[in-house]
Amino acid sequence: MENFNMVAKTLFGFEELLAKELTQLGAQEVKTGVRSVSFVGDKGFMYKANMALRTAIKILKPLKTFHIKNEQDLYDKIYKIPWKIICQKMDLWLLMLQYIQINLSIHNTLP
């Protein structure tokens, strides 16, 4: 199976504990963030992490990352993402629903 980036969300102060859990579980390239820990693994590891982690709130698979300068830049970049192609590649039924939820993780405040 192919490896990909993932992010485990957690509560503030639990980042180091979650990183240790991920390392013990066998995650690769573990890096702590603010209320999150990023790591690399395959689809099987994603399921394993969802079942075994005690300090993670949820596991996210980033579809796209980019830097923004302002609010309009954010909307423009989200709008330009080829959602139909991404959903078709992932065999998602979201296209039938005609909506998609977008979760953002912003690390710095906008000027």
List the helices and strands and how they pair.
Layout lengths: L3 E6 L5 H11 L2 E5 L3 E6 L1 H10 L5 E3 L10 H10 L2 H7 L4 H4 L14
Structural features, described:
With 111 residues, the chain is α+β, with helices and mostly antiparallel strands. Helix content is 38%, strand content 18%. The protein has 5 helices and 4 strands; from the N terminus they run βαββαβααα. The chain has helices spanning 15-25, 43-52, 71-80, 83-89, 94-97, and strands at 4-9, 28-32, 36-41, 58-60. A 4-stranded antiparallel beta sheet has the order 2-3-1-4, covered by helices on one side. The longest helix is centred in the first third of the chain and has 11 residues, at 15-25. The mean pLDDT is 84.
Search tags:
four-stranded antiparallel sheet; 111 residues; alpha+beta; globular; 38% helix; 18% strand; 5 helices; single chain
